[in-house]
Amino acid sequence: MEMNNEDYYIDFVITWVDMNDPKWGESFAKYANKIDNAKNEISKARFRDFGLLKYWFRGVEKFTPWVRKIHLVTCGQQPDWLNADNPRINLVNHEDIIPAQFLPCFNSAVIERYLHKINDLTEHFVYFNDDFFITNTIHQNRFFKNGLPCDIGTFRFNSGLSQWNKRLKNNVKLLNKHFDKKEMMSQYHDKWFNDVYKNKARLTYILKNYNKLITLQTPHNAQPFLKSTFFDVWQHCEKELTSTSANRFRDLTDYTPELFRSWQICKGNFEPYNIYNDTKMFPLVLRSSGAIKAIYEQTYLLICLNDNIHIRNYKQVIRNIRDSFDHILPQKSSFEI
CB-side exposure of 106: number of CA atoms within 13 Å? Predict the structure, then answer.
């Protein structure tokens, strides 16, 4: 595997779960009794597998051949089609990275905060949920430039009442304890006020003289990280991260992975990039046809297929998505048996 043109390796990390695994089901039932679609933290949409993971691996091989290694993080599961002998795959069990007292864990916000513990993980890595997919050729400098993650340093209003939005507010409270907004934005002025953001920077200018940080733009897709960012956040926020690691399921007291991303931006450890130019999230409950069209036409570099328990004709939607992936990624990858 060749290094990128800036002389450092880049790894991919992806988390995955298969709720149809009987062993997982027994463990889940012990702590949550059963799936309850009325509760976000234990709804089917949190844990069901689209059956599309092989296309993620095919996309990696075809569109990002420069990746050094893939770290697949699970509770000990692996797809039956996976070629685990591929030297570019590292199977990571939750117990390898998460302290035993917090296991089993069904809360992605907790799992994700321990990614820096993965053995042999490079300093530069990109994190994927299992509903993020690569649909066109991506170069290394889409994720990292000058050794730093490419990201968008702009604000957005967070007036939502969803569990996710409430947890983002937890992040902001913690960030404001550790960063002086005016000082930070003055020090990294050209990164915060950059023409590449275009209309996404409107709120940043409006709130230029406001003393406190608010929620940053949170594009829901593949996220480049420096492993050292995780160590830095843990060094400063160990008490908060440790106490909320006891949240076996999603909880309103959680800190989400956006804490680590926002921390990275507040430290100036990023290069300005308008992620919305080539990344798109498709809520399948509303935009399944748009997602299918985008895959066929390879409109974006990265897409998110966001699940929801209210997707109409769910099985047909997934069949159509599978057909669209077969159209652009028909060949097995070396990651498949």
Answer: 26
pTM for the model: 0.94
| pLDDT (tens digit per residue) in 41-50 | 566 666 667 7
Task: Write down the residue that tokens 């983002």 correspond to.
Answer: 168
Measured distance CA(291)–CA(297) in Å, rounded: 10
Hey, what are 232's tokens?
Answer: 């830095």
Q: Are strands 302-306 and 132-134 parallel, antiparallel or unpaired?
A: antiparallel
Within the chain, where are the H helices?
Answer: 22-32, 44-47, 53-63, 94-97, 108-112, 163-178, 181-187, 189-192, 202-206, 227-244, 258-266, 284-297, 314-328
Tokens of 304: 């998110």
pLDDT tens-digit profile of 267-293?
999 999 999 999 999 988 878 899 999
CB atoms within 10 A of CB 199: 9
Extract the tokens encoding 65: 């051949």
- The amino acid present at 230, given as its one-letter code, is F
**Three-class DSSP category at 22:** helix
What is the amino acid identity at position 8?
Answer: Y
